[in-house]
Amino acid sequence: MTALTIVLTGASGGIGSAVAKMMSAAGHRLILVGRNPQPLNDLRDMLDGSARHTTVVADLLQAADRKRLVTQCKQDCSKVDVLINNAGVSHFGLLENISDQAMADMLNTNVLAPVLIVRDLLPLLSRSSNATIINIGSTFGSIGYPGFSGYSASKFALRGFTEALRRELAEQLITVHYLAPRAVDTPMNSASVKALNAELGNAMDPPEIVAAACHALLKARDGRNRYLGWPERFFVRINALIPALVDVTLRKQLRTIQKYSRPEA
Ligand SMILES: NC(=O)c1ccc[n+]([C@@H]2O[C@H](COP(=O)([O-])OP(=O)(O)OC[C@H]3O[C@@H](n4cnc5c(N)ncnc54)[C@H](OP(=O)(O)O)[C@@H]3O)[C@@H](O)[C@H]2O)c1
């Protein structure tokens, strides 16, 4: 595969770092985006061919920062081949305990920011004959999960945006993917979420699984959604066809979810 220029948001996080390592090892050039310079610089320094990668310190909730990201991309490269919208936040808890700020954080970071970044990078993506957008979703973007109502809402919205955009760009050479991991072992998950998953027997994948799926999408470029993990992939189907069955399963988990979602837990 030819070397691609990849804009990766949330590069310094658990999944982002694994994606950056896999893509750099494959010879691609990365534009690494995050809010904190130190972890971004540390990451760049450890990547294969570190000199060919750049970092952009940007809070994607700030219009001026998003503008600076686009300007930097224009300055550094004639085109962007791949945009991976990976930056995201999650606040676990019953809705009654989620603050205005936490809810706004999830909806703005997980939906509004990627939508606006796609819009603003479309001109640079249009110049590539391999243009690919990968929106990192979640199993909870197809299965509304108790304790994650705001997060689920954000990932359902991201999935809807991906579907609409894919159809809107059907006449162009831009492939749009939605990649939905199940739980992944990264700093995003608090100790309570990890304990909840352990008690419920929910598997947590290493971030390298998601990185490998991203890498595979660059070759497939088939514009199909991907759901990682079994039985989660199966439950996504069941939830779409017979949601009442999933209601019964999640009703049985509710007391456990409530226990771990207490603010002091
Ligand atoms: N971990 C899971 O269980 C799981 C499961 C399914 C899907 N996902 C999805 O996978 C993606 C990556 O998650 P992760 O587990 O790798 O989380 P993580 O380790 O917490 O990393 C999140 C990344 O997003 C960046 N970020 C957050 N807010 C930002 C903002 N306003 N502007 C710029 N960057 C921002 C963070 O960098 P700074 O803080 O330095 O800015 C960090 O690099 C997310 O979209 C998440 O929803 C995760």
TrEMBL record:
EC number(s) on file: 1.1.1.100
UniProt domain Ketoreductase: residue ranges: 4-183
Coiled coil: none
Catalytic class of the enzyme: oxidoreductase
Keywords, ordered alphabetically: Oxidoreductase
Domain of life: Bacteria
SMART domains per the UniProt record, alphabetical: PKS_KR (SM00822)
Record's keyword annotation contains Oxidoreductase: yes
Molecular function via GO: 3-oxoacyl-[acyl-carrier-protein] reductase (NADPH) activity
GO cellular component, one term: membrane
PANTHER family: DEHYDROGENASE/REDUCTASE SDR FAMILY MEMBER 7B (PTHR44196), DEHYDROGENASE_REDUCTASE SDR FAMILY MEMBER 7B (PTHR44196:SF1)
Family per record: Belongs to the short-chain dehydrogenases/reductases (SDR) family.
Protein name as it appears in the record: 3-oxoacyl-[acyl-carrier-protein] reductase FabG
